[in-house]
Design goal:
Elements: H1 7-13, E1 18-25, H2 29-40, E2 45-48, E3 64-66, H3 71-75, H4 82-93, H5 99-118, E4 123-128, E5 138-141, H6 147-159, E6 163-165, E7 168-175, E8 181-188, E9 199-211, H7 220-226, H8 245-253, E10 257-258, E11 263-266, H9 279-290, E12 292-295, E13 300-301, H10 309-319, E14 323-328, H11 329-334, H12 340-344, E15 348-351, H13 354-360, H14 365-381, E16 402-407, E17 410-414, E18 417-418, E19 425-427, E20 433-439, H15 456-473
Parallel strand pairs: 1-2, 1-9, 2-6, 9-20
Antiparallel strand pairs: 3-5, 4-5, 7-8, 8-9, 10-18, 11-17, 12-13, 12-14, 14-16, 15-16, 19-20
Length: 474
């Protein structure tokens, strides 16, 4: 039986402004994946998005999906396995990961990647290795942009009959007499700059609701309650839409929160620009994998540039001031990173020598030159004796001219969220399933524990978006 088959429920359904089989909250990777999956199983699907534009944080992401055992890896002779990816995720999680969720991501990642290929997502031939991963498993969409994944997802959703409403914000979940989620109270015409704006409506879900509204990285009030250090003085890479509204609505319904204080800082942010900006591409794909990061007060390295995000962010914060990330032209070329935009904005700077670079950042020149020479010698030998950084196969000793950027962490991802099981069902504080409610993506807590590995978020969104979409359509 559907929730609306009894006489009482039919009367209840009549109070809805519109009814679809499946309602999806959020238009990022997880939401669109769930919507398309449910639609292909014959369900009518409505997606609501609180912003005017579609794609959420996903559309401005770097578009790299971690996947183990893919056709791309096999073609390039890269040895990898879901077991290895799971071990890496659990190691980064520092004992706090909910293993069934992490396992689902690792073991579903290759199928998720191949599914994106089938949708027409274009990936670069090069498979990258992100910090904390023991193998090259970062598959790069388009020109390092999440839009290269969002646009094909949107095209298929529209072509296959998924209805999408923008500027529609979730206020509350609607339940029937038995406690099953059967709809949403929303406001249409919402402007995120005015929290109370919009016209109230009630929309129904004959089968299920999928919550895929993302994290709360831009919600200063909510995140600073969880971690008082992350007040308004700490910038975020997230869009202004990354708020806790959907999460709070689910908690009011009785959904259990998980690890809300686990908030990840991106170690590659720049204090010289607001938001995500242009700098993370330079640090993530050129400087961290192929170059070096130094303390400007000493001119020396202080961390493994390919450690996980928590380790790198903590190391930079411990300095008490921004670090300086350095790479050369060859590193940018190998990483397929074009520094032109970052150079134009003054976030990344170009220097003809180490001495010129040292002077620009008030560094001791002798110490910097010695650091660069020592690092270059290690790259030539294929080993980093100082910090144990993995020297990538295509890495070359750095030489002038150099590119450099001031580096300071920013709030990037929220590991905390709702409690859900490996079938994407949302659970209450007693561990009971909340019928009719599924969740996917960053709104789910526990998958990554203490620290998410770079490129694992898109894998999580696609894997659990498909799981939630299949379940919701039943």
């Amino acid at each position: 039986m559907t929730p609306f088959q009894s006489a009482h429920e039919a009367e209840f359904a009549a109070t809805m402004d519109v009814v679809a089989d499946v309602l999806v909250v959020g238009s990022g990777f997880a939401g669109l994946t769930a919507a398309l999956t449910a639609r292909r199983l014959g369900a009518s699907v409505n997606v609501i998005e609180k912003m005017k534009g579609l794609g959420g944080n996903s559309v401005i992401s770097d578009g790299v999906i971690a996947a183990a055992g893919t056709s791309f890896q096999k073609r390039q002779g890269i040895e990898d396995s879901p077991e290895s990816m799971l071990r890496d995720m659990l190691r980064a999680g520092r004992g706090l990961s909910h293993e069934p969720l992490a396992r689902a991501v690792a073991f579903g990642s290759a199928d998720a990647f191949e599914w994106l290929l089938e949708l027409g997502v274009a990936f670069q031939d090069k498979v990258e290795r992100s910090g904390g991963h023991s193998a090259s498993r970062g598959h790069v969409a388009g020109r390092h942009t999440g839009a290269a994944i969002i646009h094909p997802l949107l095209r298929h959703c529209r072509e296959e009959g998924v209805a999408i409403a923008t500027q529609t914000v979730l206020d509350a979940f609607v339940t029937n007499q038995s406690g099953r989620v059967v709809g949403l109270d929303v406001r249409e015409g919402h402007d995120y700059r005015d929290p109370d704006s919009g016209t109230p409506r009630r929309i129904g879900a004959a089968r299920a609701v999928v919550l895929a509204c993302g994290g709360y990285g831009a919600d200063v009030a909510f995140r600073s309650v969880q971690d008082p250090r992350l007040d308004a003085t700490v910038d975020t890479t997230n869009k202004p839409s990354a708020l806790a509204q959907g999460l709070i609505a689910a908690m009011r319904l009785g959904a259990a929160p998980v690890q809300l204080s686990r908030i990840q800082l991106g170690p590659w942010g720049s204090p010289d620009e607001k938001g995500f900006g242009t700098g993370p591409g330079f640090a993530s794909y050129a400087a961290f994998p192929y170059g070096l990061v130094v303390n400007p007060a000493t001119g020396k390295r202080f961390m493994n540039e390919l450690g996980d995000r928590r380790a790198r962010s903590d190391a930079i914060l411990a300095l008490g001031h921004p670090a300086v990330s350095i790479a050369d032209e060859m590193a940018c070329a190998v990483a397929s990173y074009d520094p032109a935009k970052a150079l134009q904005r003054g976030v990344v700077r170009r220097f003809e020598s180490a001495a010129e670079l040292a002077a620009a950042y008030d560094m001791p020149v002798d110490a910097l030159e010695q650091t660069i020479d020592s690092f270059a010698a290690g790259v030539a030998k294929g080993e980093d004796a100082a910090f144990g950084k993995s020297i990538l196969a295509d890495a070359q000793p750095p030489k002038p001219p150099f590119y450099a950027m001031r580096t300071w962490p920013k709030v990037h991802f929220t590991m905390g969220g709702l409690r859900a099981d490996a079938e994407a069902r949302v659970l209450d504080c007693d561990g009971r399933i909340i019928p009719g409610l599924y969740a996917a993506g960053e709104v789910v807590g526990g998958t990554h524990g203490d620290s998410r590995l770079g490129s694992a978020a898109i894998a999580e969104c696609i894997v659990f978006g498909r799981i939630a979409g299949r379940a919701a359509a039943r």
